[in-house]
Amino acid sequence: MLSVFEFTLLGLAAFRCMRLFAFDLVSIKLRQYFQVEEEHFLEDGTVEVIISGKGKGIRYIIGEMLACHWCVGMWSTIGLYTGYTLAPMIFTPIIVVLAIAALAGIIEVFLSK
After folding, report:
1. Tens-digit pLDDT profile for the chain (113 aa)?
2. Helix, strand, coil percentages for the chain (3-state, nearest 5)
3. Reduced to 3 states, what is the DSSP secondary structure of residue 101?
4. pTM for this structure?
5. What are phi and psi of 15, to 5 degrees?
6. For residues 55 and 63, is the Cβ–Cβ distance under 8 A?
7. Rounded to 5 degrees, what are φ and ψ at 50?
8. Which DSSP symbol is given to 3?
């Protein structure tokens, strides 16, 4: 069973990992390999961007999963928790760094308002 501290660290790390893969510019090349963006012009003049998987097979499936931040969050959580359970010496520093980055990002959002 995880302590409250471990649970909080894993939660923050999973949040940051999800943001890293689903939204951050640093991972845009990765997403572009798996995804295609289509612009649809709506009647009210706004533009809707539809993101979907590119290609076929596993490339398409990964693209679809990267388009869904809930999916990326789930896979990030599974990966981090599994790594923490099986290889804590390797994954603990990764989790701590991601958690600190998440907390720093959350603080920045509050201070910028």
Report:
1. 899 999 999 999 999 999 999 999 999 999 999 999 998 888 898 999 889 899 999 999 999 999 999 999 999 999 999 999 999 999 999 999 999 999 999 999 999 98
2. 75, 10, 15
3. helix
4. 0.83
5. -60, -45
6. yes
7. -105, 125
8. -
